Amino acid sequence: MARKKIIAGNWKMNMTPSEAVELVNTLKPLVATEDADVVFCVPAIDIIPAMEAAKGSNIEIGAENMYFEEKGAYTGEISPSMLTDVGVKYVVLGHSERREYFAETSETVNKKMLKAFEHGITPIMCCGETLEQREQGVTMDFIRQQVKVGFLNVTAAQAATSVIAYEPIWAIGTGKTATTEQAQEVCKAIRECIAEIYDDATAAAVRIQYGGSVNAATAPELFVQPDIDGGLVGGAALKPDFGKIVNWK
Ligand code: PGA
Predict the structure, then answer these.
(1) How far apart are CA 201 and CA 189, in angstroms?
(2) I want to staple 198 with a disulfide (CB 3.0 to 4.6 A). Which of 30, 109, 156, 173 is the partner?
(3) What CA–CA distance (Å, rounded) separates 75 from 71?
(4) Residues 60, 64, 129, 167: which is the catalytic one?
(5) How high is the mean pLDDT of the chain?
């Protein structure tokens, strides 16, 4: 069965709640499609107003992070049931910015993955190498480790529903998109890694996105690759360009 594309915006720490409403309203007609799942992953405080604004459209509102405990003394964190209570179905986990600035590790990402599945939230799990790792030739070793630890104790049935975002760190926010060959090569290797952990059917079902300076010009050649099932888009998700990315065909 062909995998449905999934194109997600990662707003990062941008857009106040009122700006979020405006942006959703602007993008709503531009991202209308039945060919892809369209998700806006937004700051926690924007989730409810963005959802209100997105009502009646094909846009799903997701979160950018989530904690792995149910509740309690974790000042500043958001629990899985806080997200599901308002209807969130997707959460970005282990973005490189969270790993770099907020001490997120593959182990904490794994705990969050397990919690997300327990609550019926689809994780968009990020992985990706630094420029130094790429130059040292350890890209795949590093990413395989991120994927294997991230999916520890995740069942095949859960893994099949998940989304993995391959985001080379050197391509994020830099305007340097990986070449389509580089992106396809790593996404294919991630799928092979999932096949090794589980089986071919699970690998065939999991959706793998490319992320890192995706824009309207690069999206078509990336999304046509056999192992690239869409994109995780930062900067360009805040602009009308996102409509072109979603309707890349
Ligand atoms: P970018 O961000 O598209 O601005 O490079 C992508 C991401 O970090 O998800």
Answers:
(1) 15
(2) 156
(3) 10
(4) 167
(5) 97
Joined together, the tokens standing for residue 1 give 């069965």
Q: Looking at ligand 1, which atom is closest to the CA of residue 126?
A: 9
Q: Write down the domain spans for the chain.
A: 5-246
Rounded percentage of the chain residues whose pLDDT exceeds 90: 97
CB 150 within 8 A of CB 106: yes
> Which residue in 95, 97, 104, 129 is the catalytic one?
95
CA distances from 1 to 25, 107, 159 (A): 33, 32, 16
234 Cβ closer than 6 Å to some ligand 1 atom: yes
What tens digit of pLDDT does each residue of 145-181 get?
Answer: 999 999 999 999 999 999 999 999 999 988 888 899 9
**Residue carrying structure tokens 């050649």:** 221
Active site residue 119: no
Name the phi and psi angles at 57, rounded to 5: -110, 180
Distance 55 CA to ligand 1 centre (A): 26
Q: Which CATH class is domain 5-246?
A: alpha beta
Q: Which residues are paired to 123 by β-bridges?
A: 91
